[in-house]
Amino acid sequence: MVDPFTAATSLALGGGGMYLLLKQWRLRNKRLRAKALLEKYGTRTRLQQQSGRMRLIFNNPQVGDLPSSEQEAWQERDQRRDRSFIELDLIQPPQEEPGESEEERASELERRHEWIQSNEPPMQEHAALVAEEEIGSGVVVADPAEELETAIDERLEREGGASGVVQISLAWDDYNDLDLHLFCPSGERIYFNNKRSDCGGILDVDMNVRPLSNTPVENVVWRDIAPLGTYKVGVHFYKHHRKRKTKRVCTYRLRVITHGRAKEYVGKIKYGQAMQMVTSFTLASTK
User: How many secondary structure helices (H) and strands (E) does the chain include?
Assistant: First the structure.
């Protein structure tokens, strides 16, 4: 006669093993499906470095590039991200806007530091969910002639932003606080609470913690050497500042430069919305 405890233990272990196998099978299928979508709808470009060596860049597709069934699947994932953002209580509560003295500036920076200290675990959890996404959130490729309207280079020069072999810049035209999040090939995330990555990326411009500019810009750059692998660009509507002509829906412009090749996108993000995976690209060797 089989001991009931032994039988129950065997069943539990067997069930646990089946669960892990099923989970691995689903993850594998998910990766294969994402790879197939990227190969079918993404773009590939050969880039020449200053050293004369070549690089391949793979640009992942936007949700609008996909067939309707895949767009519906993306919408479901996006709704899941929005629910996560709300459930983790990551929406900044409204408050009176601070003044412009140095004391009030220091106080606002301290409030953000305290918020990060208490909300870092849920923010990391939400960022990990966003980082799973392979498809862009629906930004459109910008007309280069419209660059004069946003003047990203002028803003970067004004704020002392650096340029480099890989550079991602975010600009918008009101007093809201948007934040650039760069998911690195190494698995690190560069953002305002982690401005330097071990793989060489630096967030060197971070604006509108306080609503001081209606022509802000943020900038992440690899100056000399950029690692191979996948870069994912996220945008987070951190805080809505209640100032004149500053609304809860913000239009932004994103520029991605890879080894001298620039590509610009225009998108919108709403206050209270989950962090958006705006676009992603992969640098690879031609060998």
Answer: 5, 12
**Confidence at residue 82, expressed as pLDDT on a 0 to 100 scale:** 95
Bridge-partner residues for 42, per DSSP? Answer: none
Task: Say if residue 28 is exposed, middle or buried (CB neighbours under 10 Å; 0-12, 13-18, 19+).
Answer: exposed
- In terms of DSSP H, where are the helices of the chain? 4-41, 68-87, 102-131, 147-150, 152-159
Find the length of the chain.
287
Amino acid letter, residue 231? Y
Token digits of residue 67: 């067939």
| Predicted model pTM | 0.84
Residue 20 predicted with pLDDT over 70: no
Return the pLDDT at 15.
65
pLDDT tens per residue, range 79-95:
999 999 999 999 877 65
CB 48 within 8 A of CB 54: yes
Domain-wise residue ranges, the chain: 4-41, 54-285
- Beta strand pairing status for 166-172 and 249-258? antiparallel
Would you list the DSSP string of 86-122? Answer: HHTT-SPPP-PPP-SSHHHHHHHHHHHHHHHHHHHHH
Q: Which long-range contacts (CB under 8 A, 24 or more apart) does 21-29 make?
A: none
